[in-house]
UniProtKB/TrEMBL annotation, chain A:
Key word Transmembrane present: yes
Domain of life: Bacteria
UniProt family annotation: Belongs to the binding-protein-dependent transport system permease family.
UniProt protein name: ABC transporter permease
Topology versus the membrane: Multi-pass membrane protein
Signal sequence, renumbered to the chain: none
One GO CC annotation: plasma membrane
From TrEMBL, chain B:
Transmembrane portions of the chain: 36-60, 104-129, 149-175, 205-223, 229-247, 268-288
Principal subcellular localisation of the protein: membrane
Lineage: Bacteria, Pseudomonadati, Pseudomonadota, Alphaproteobacteria, Hyphomicrobiales
Entry superkingdom: Bacteria
Pfam families in alphabetical order: BPD_transp_1, OppC_N
Gene Ontology biological process terms, A to Z: peptide transport; protein transport; transmembrane transport
Classification via CDD domains: TM_PBP2
Protein name: ABC transporter permease
Annotated ranges, domain ABC transmembrane type-1: 100-289
Family in the record: Belongs to the binding-protein-dependent transport system permease family.
GO cellular component: plasma membrane
Natural source organism: Vineibacter terrae
Length: 338, 301
């Protein structure tokens, strides 16, 4: 059905800019509703009236709102996010510095979550109602109920303070600072590429606990969804047919049933990946992880609006991009949605 | 026949004589199903207990939640201070009891703001259809594609920290899910004969939406609200933890963890006790929501 496939793609191409426009509008409005006068933020509250008026003119605040919004959009689209008051660097440069650390954390957590969550979900579905199923369901339910920052704190208390199995908060031991030249910005990859195995080992030790905490949340979500998808498939008649034909149980489960849930499962994984970018805000605070989440919260507490809006926009765009990509995948790949 | 047996027979009668009897009978049958799921019953018990604690907080608290006494700071759990004391010598048990008011208050405020709005918008979109529907769905798309906590953070950054701003921020990201559900339900029942019959009798669109369509969307909405409550609790606690929700002297659970964090290695109870409170509250609503879904919305399980 090439026609409807084309239709799906066209619909998606309309949604993408519209949603991005919505994101820009929301961040613009957030910047406008704040009670801090942006002019005073620039010139200080003791500036004489003429300085104040000139700054107001320079910032374009005398223009009508729609024109201001238009200026804001064109600035953002050409990559001008403004300067951070806190670090006095351009916001975009800051984000490029901090984002790889978050990406590294979220990626490792997702890999762990998928490696454990998918088999757990399949197992629970195959043995529906058994003790194993109940144990897995219970574990995922806890994952949906426990606050991520509490789990991080308890993890630090148990594995760092009591058992001394992992190093404390932070990304790397201070002694190893600046040994590896950043290429991708992801310490694990950079140190491995440059053959600095001692740094690599230290970085692995540091990332283990925060990635583990995040992985538990993605595991809970992925296992729960995998179980639900598999249960739906295992009820279908083609599964019975395959069994009656004498096919091995393993082949029925992994090749026939699992093959059919692959597309929705990829969507779930991508969504949980996007969710981890958000979950990292709290995790990074607990583990003093120098990523985008920590940058965002520190800027928030310092009322550094350019940095806050820039980081929100970037996380929002990544989140949105992943969301829409899944949507596209669904519409184009899965013939049942047409 | 004893009175209980008579009541039971009245409830499960095949031919109910009044609307009220039919309604109560259905509720009774749903309760019978619900009762078998002991996890759901546990969830109901936890949720009710939480509500009771919040209502009776001044009676249950053993100490003044804000009374400082530096002589007894950071005491471990014991006979006088059941869950220990914090860095200013305040009783942690009493603070958690009073904090339940803040947490539940935020949850109720968000739900009251969001559920009716989502219901009306969703029903209207589903019933009216056409361009109105398309615009509403596009708007929900945009809001649902936002990372919830980050949007809440940005809002709070602009409006300033505080419980009310936290509630507004969470509400802004929560309503689209309800609108979606109400719309899906509306689309499913829009073509029913009873709707057509009511329309032929001259019922206006408003009357159809509010009196005929919206009530039928309620059960899926209730399930979603219950499941959402745990998410609201976690987001509210996260905001408090980052110092952007309730501000420190108030005994909000997330804010308590954020101050207790400094003592986690030596005085673990300061941060852990409110953490357990958040966990139990959120687990309770999750269990209750799962159980309600099995009863009210069997097709989704």
């Amino acid at each position: 059905m090439p026609r409807s496939r084309f239709g799906a793609l066209a619909g998606w191409l309309v949604t993408l800019p519209l949603t991005l426009f919505g994101l820009l509008l929301v961040t613009f409005l957030i910047g406008r509703v704040m009670p801090i006068d942006p002019v005073i933020a620039v010139v200080g509250d003791r500036a004489p009236a003429d300085v104040y008026a000139r700054a107001r003119l320079e910032l374009g605040l005398d223009r009508p709102l729609y024109e201001q919004f238009f200026r804001y959009c064109s600035a953002i689209l050409s990559g001008q996010f403004g300067r951070s008051v806190m670090t006095s660097r351009p916001v975009l440069e800051d984000i490029a510095r901090f984002f790889p650390a978050t990406l590294e954390l979220a990626t490792l957590a997702t890999i762990l979550g998928v490696a454990l969550g998918v088999p757990a979900g399949v197992l629970a579905a195959v043995r529906q109602g058994s003790k194993t199923d109940q144990a897995i369901r219970f574990l995922t339910l806890i994952g949906h109920s426990v606050p991520i920052f509490v789990l991080g704190l308890v993890g630090l208390l148990v594995f760092y303070a009591k058992l001394d199995l992992v190093p404390g908060p932070g990304r790397i031991n201070v002694a190893f600072d600046d040994i590896v030249t950043p290429v991708t910005g992801m310490l694990l990859i950079d140190s491995a590429l440059q053959g600095e195995w001692e740094v690599f080992r230290d970085a692995v030790g540091h990332i283990l606990l925060p990635a583990g905490v995040l992985a538990y949340f993605s595991l809970a979500y992925i296992a729960r969804m995998t179980r639900a998808f598999m249960l739906e498939q295992l009820r279908q008649e083609y599964v019975t047919t395959a069994r009656v034909k004498g096919m091995s149980e393993r082949r029925v489960i992994w090749r026939h049933a699992f093959g059919n849930i692959a597309v929705p499962l990829i969507t779930v994984i991508a969504l949980s990946y996007a969710g981890l970018l958000e979950g990292s805000v709290l995790t990074e605070t607990i583990f003093s992880w120098p990523g985008l989440g920590q940058y965002l919260t520190i800027s928030l507490l310092n009322a550094d609006m350019n940095a806050v809006l820039g980081a929100t926009l970037v996380v929002g765009a990544v989140y949105l991009g992943l969301n829409l990509l899944c949507d596209l995948l669904y519409r184009v790949v899965d013939p049942r949605t047409r | 026949m004893s009175r209980a047996a008579a009541l039971r027979a009245w409830l499960i009668a095949d031919t109910p004589l009044s609307r009220r009897q039919a309604r109560l009978g259905r509720l009774y049958l749903q309760w019978l199903t619900f009762r078998h799921n002991w996890l759901a019953v546990a969830g109901l018990a936890v949720s009710l207990l939480l509500a009771l604690i919040a209502i009776a907080a001044p009676l249950l608290a053993t100490h003044d939640p804000s009374a400082q006494n530096l002589d007894i700071r950071l005491q471990p759990p014991g006979a006088t201070h059941w869950l220990g004391t914090d860095e200013l010598g305040r009783d942690i048990y009493s603070r958690i009891v009073h904090g339940s008011r803040i947490t539940l208050g935020m949850v109720v405020a968000v739900v009251v703001l969001v559920a009716p709005f989502g219901l009306v918008v969703g029903c209207a979109a589903g019933y009216v259809g056409g361009w109105f529907d398309r615009i509403v769905m596009r708007v929900t798309d945009i809001f649902m594609a936002f990372p919830r906590l980050i949007l809440a953070l940005a809002f709070v950054a602009a409006l300033g920290p505080g419980i009310e701003n936290g509630v507004i921020a969470i509400a802004l990201t929560a309503w689209p899910a309800y609108a979606r559900i109400a719309r899906a339900e509306t689309l499913a029942i829009r073509g029913s004969d009873f709707i057509a019959a009511a329309r032929l009798q001259g019922a206006s669109a408003l009357r159809l939406i509010f009196a005929h369509v919206a009530p039928l969307c309620l059960s899926s909405l209730i399930v979603r609200v219950t499941l959402d409550m745990s998410g609201i609790i976690l987001t509210a606690a996260g905001l408090g933890f980052l110092g952007l929700g309730a501000v420190p002297p108030s005994p909000e659970w997330g804010a308590m963890i954020s101050t207790g964090r400094r003592f986690i290695l030596e005085q673990w109870w300061v941060a852990t006790m409110p953490g357990i409170a958040i966990f139990v509250a959120s687990l309770g609503f999750n269990l209750l929501g799962d159980g309600l879904r099995d009863v009210l919305d069997p097709k989704q399980t």
